[in-house]
Amino acid sequence: MNLQGISLETGDGIRLQYNQTGPKNGQQLLFITGWRQAAAEWRKQVDYFSSAGFCVTTFDMRGHGDSEEPEFGYRISRLAADLNDVLEQLDLKKVSIIGHSMGCSVAWAWWDQYPETRKRVAKLVLVDQPAITVRDLKWTDEQAAQVSAIFTPNAIFELADDIAAQLAPLVKSMFTAAVSDSDLEWVLAQNRKMSDAHSGTLLIDHALADWRDVLPRITVPTLVLAGEVSVFPPAGVAWIATQIPGAKSYTFTAAEKGSHFSFWENPERFNSVVKHFLIG
């Protein structure tokens, strides 16, 4: 099965582009991208897991990639509602969700808001996203480091306000120096499918959220993945696994190209770690 260029309609009437690849009766996987990223960026995982017998679903969130870009809805709570629409309309069952960066926040918001749909999900893989990214101004540096809260409130608003100029250096900082110019330009092209205005609005909403109280209420097997050379210090990402009952964690080393985009820079190792968790 390889269905390309198909879409579904959310509860508020927005068309989301999605793809399903691999045998229809295979173990279900659903990949969620990060802020401003397109589903096409999971292509190294789609190829690997669909060839390994998994049924792989990817989708572009509203305003992202090839999905419709309305003038409203750029908040995590709305993206969680869209995710719920994806799960229900595609009738995904016993699905493992793999979320990257902001995709983790979308998954956390969905878990928090839609308890009646949780029965559809078998496992979670959370890739390189702190539970809170903006530090409380009363915190010490040590307190902020414990949870990898790397931004101040002012820094987030300034970044969102200047996102047109800051996008390229921001995205580049998420990779190791080994990333090729062609790969970086391709990823930037996917990012630029979303408008600066909408991405700025979403960035503020995403960055100011705090998901720490959701973590202890997650009841499915969970794997937390961090990167030794990621923009998010790995200790604060791995800390999430200590808050989710029974969760496991793995940190990709510098030698393993453990950047924020480890799944792109070292797909062989990334796919191996995720597959071991999924079938274990």
Automatic annotation (TrEMBL):
A Gene Ontology BP annotation from the UniProt entry: acylglycerol catabolic process
Residues annotated as domain AB hydrolase-1: 29-267
Domain of life: Eukaryota
Molecular function GO labels: monoacylglycerol lipase activity
GO cellular component: membrane
Keywords annotated in UniProt: Hydrolase
Keyword Ribonucleoprotein: no
Hydrolase keyword on record: yes
Protein name: Alpha/Beta hydrolase protein
Source species of the chain: Lasiosphaeris hirsuta
